[in-house]
Amino acid sequence: MKRIVTFGEILLRWSKNGARRFNQGYDWEGHFGGSEANVAVSLSVLGNDVSYVSRIPANEIGRSCIKELRFWGVDVSGIVRGGERFGTYYFEPSRDQRKSLVVYDRQGSSFYSSAPGMYPWREIFSKADIFHCSGITCAVSQSATDATFEAVRTAKEMGLRITCDINFRKNLWKYEGADAPRTLGELMQYSDFIFGDQDEWEKVTGVPQVPIDNMTADSELDMEAYGRYFEEMHRRWPGCREMMLGLRNQITTSHHTLTALLWCDGKIYRSKIYDIDDIVDSVGVGDAFVAAYIHASEKWKDDPQRALDFSIAAASMKNSVIGDFNLITEQEILDIL
User: Fold this and answer.
1) Cβ(289)–Cβ(42) below 8 Å
2) How far apart are CA 93 and CA 264, in angstroms?
3) Disulfide engineering: 4 pairs with which of 50, 104, 192, 258, CB 3.0-4.6 Å?
4) Pairing relationship of beta strands 242-252 and 193-197 according to DSSP bridges
């Protein structure tokens, strides 16, 4: 079994119970989550040997977080203790035509102060085969960006497979000198596999997305246009062997259609279009996608179509799970397929 390392900030997500807005009621419900931690937990639930690396405070919240990760089978030996506070975000769920609302409280958190030299990457990667990172770590602060690039450069030098989720978050890129397209584009240069939705790819590249209106379960996609699109992406990132484009149509907040395209060594694969008509919690769907693809692309190395089908099924099923973590097992996904 290959060892996978993920790196990022785990947060406390706070929401009012039910569909209440921030200014309604008094009860809050908390969940641990965050893109790279979500990927780690999902990979562990799928049966992988996975380690999560981060920086969290040495207090009761930090200890509770470590206990939660251990409960799901994630190795936490690479977590560094330090700093004074745990990063949080406040999430107001969407309902019907009302969009969701996110308010971050991450500035000055333990992870915000991450810096080169803080993590013993060579030791962490000594028994690892895959390193997963995302653009969110580069959006937190300049020092966290520097720590991320120290990690990917070390991983590349040591021969690890590097997977990257673009994960563009417009509300985070606020530190002095922040340049999301340039930084994310450079991060993607180190990557063997890149994932992003149509908006994220467009934000990084400036290339308009292929038009698709009102995608339904029986819609036809313009595969010739997507062929040209991926050719341009490969020209920009020639070292990347696998690129995935997630496509989602939000009909209402509880009704989405979801599909994806995979470019692998010059060939395009497409999944079926899932019609998801009773969404419980859509947070972490992209993370579920990425984790399932990492798992499936290692398990069925010579079958990219199977890996893609497995990952889209996992992502669609995440919509039924409350919280950031996708707790769907491999067998449950195979049963759906």
Assistant:
1) no
2) 35
3) 50
4) parallel
Q: Please choose, from the candidates 245, 250, 135, 252, the residue with its C-alpha nearest in 3D space to the C-alpha of residue 199.
A: 245
Question: Which residues make Cβ contacts (< 8 Å) with residue 240, sequence separation at least 6?
Answer: 188, 191, 192, 193, 194, 233, 234
Mean pLDDT within 52-71: 97
CB 32 within 8 A of CB 10: yes
pLDDT of residue 216: 86
- Amino acid present at 8: G
CB-CB contact of 193 with 242 (8 Å) = yes
Write the burial class of residue 20 (CB in 10 Å: 0-12 exposed, 13-18 middle, 19+ buried): middle
Computed over every residue of the chain, the mean pLDDT equals 94
Query: What letter would DSSP give residue 98?
Result: B
This prediction's pTM:
0.96
Burial group, residue 65, by CB count within 10 angstroms (0-12, 13-18, 19+): buried
